[in-house]
Every structure is written in C-alpha cells, then in structure tokens.
C-alpha cells in the first residue's frame, strides 16, 4: 500500500534533504557549488542516515560543538615553509565562528526547504539554531608607516598611485574606480 504522510516524513533522511536542496539550488541560486561544499562537509557527515523528522535542538548543540572542530580538506592552501603569517588566536576563533555562521545559513536553508516542501511536519529541531553573535564584525587593523612603505614599494608603478590614493583617503577599490574629475 501507499505510505502515509507521517511515514514518508519519518523516512526522509538528512542526506535526501541535502540532495533535494542541491537539485533546487542548482536551478535557483548562484551559490549552489558553495552550498554543496558546506552541506557535504558539515551537515551530511554528522547526521548521516538521520531522519529529518527526528532531529532535536540538542542534536544541533552537539553538531555545533563538532563543527567548530572540523577542518575539511581541500578548501585552502596552507602557508609555505618559512611563512611569516601569524594569526591572533582570538581573531582565529572569530573567523572560525564567522565561517560557521555562513554554514549555519546554508544548513537552515536546506532544512527549511524540506519543511516548506512538506517533507517533515515540523521545523522545531533546527528552528532555534542561532548564528554566533559578533563573529561577522569587520576586523579593524591599521598598517604602520613602515608597512605602508613596503606595500607601495611592492606595487607596479602604475598601480602604486592607486594604492597610495587608497592609503591616503581610506577609499576602497570600487570607490576609487568610480571617482571622476568633477568630484573634486
């Protein structure tokens, strides 16, 4: 016989929700590839085989703890030997939470689509999944006079004028490109 709506929602897994969302995203969004990476790296491995209808807020609390520790391979090149790049641990933690905020957006979009499509009866399990506060704030960092000099010396002559103007005015690239003589 045919399955009832409740039976169908109980058998609808996170993996199926991800596949359905990605199929939809490829047709309707520009960020389908990014969503695919995030869902396959963060949602699918943790909730593999879980039924969407059985998800509870405590599952997402555990998931966040797990996701904070995840370091999926292949997204970023590591700094080479002898690299002088050092990241402040507090800023590293902020950046990690900012990344998780972007992942949370995609996870909620995926699961909310399953709910809107009637594949599950409730969104209670993930409704209260919240983004980290303050993680997406801009990092404020100023170059020293010596760093400005090194930056200018590293630029090609034609581009050096643009960089110097940016340093002197604080204008961004798009703002500099939009400038016209009449603006002065």
Q: Give the C-alpha Rg.
A: 23 Å
Which stretches are poorly predicted, pLDDT < 50 over at least 5 residues? none
* Average of per-residue pLDDT values: 85
Helix content: 55-70%
What proportion strand? under 5%
Instruction: Kindly report how far apart the N and C termini lie.
Output: 77 Å
**Largest beta-sheet characterization:** none
Count of helices? 9
Structural class: mainly alpha
Instruction: Please report the total strand number as a whole number.
Output: 0
Shape: elongated
SSE topology string: HHHHHHHHH
What does it look like?
With 184 residues, the protein is mainly α. 61% of the residues lie in helices and 0% in strands. The chain contains nine helices and no strands. Helix 2 runs antiparallel to helix 3, helix 2 crosses helix 5 and helix 7 runs antiparallel to helix 8. The chain is elongated, with a radius of gyration of 23 Å. The N and C termini lie far apart (77 Å). The mean pLDDT is 85.
Short description:
The chain is mostly helical and 184 residues long. It contains 9 helices and no strands.
Defining key terms:
0% strand, mainly alpha, 184 residues
Give the arrangement of secondary structure elements.
Layout: H1 5-11, H2 14-28, H3 32-47, H4 57-69, H5 89-116, H6 124-127, H7 145-154, H8 157-169, H9 173-178
């Amino acid at each position: 016989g045919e399955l009832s709506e409740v039976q169908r929602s109980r058998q609808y897994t996170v993996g199926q929700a991800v596949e359905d969302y990605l199929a939809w995203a490829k047709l309707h969004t520009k960020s389908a590839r990014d969503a695919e990476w995030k869902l396959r790296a963060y949602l699918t491995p943790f909730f593999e085989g879980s039924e969407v209808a059985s998800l509870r807020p405590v599952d997402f609390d555990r998931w966040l703890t797990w996701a904070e520790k995840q370091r999926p391979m292949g997204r970023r090149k590591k700094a080479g030997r002898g690299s002088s790049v050092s990241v402040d641990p507090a800023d590293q933690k902020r950046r990690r939470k900012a990344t998780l905020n972007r992942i949370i957006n995609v996870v909620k979009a995926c699961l909310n689509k399953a709910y809107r499509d009637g594949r599950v009866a409730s969104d209670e399990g993930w409704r209260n999944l919240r983004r980290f506060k303050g993680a997406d704030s801009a990092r404020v960092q100023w170059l020293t006079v010596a760093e400005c000099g090194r930056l200018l010396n590293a630029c090609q002559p034609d581009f050096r004028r643009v960089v110097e103007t940016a340093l002197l005015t604080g204008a961004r690239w798009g703002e500099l490109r939009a400038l016209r003589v009449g603006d002065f």
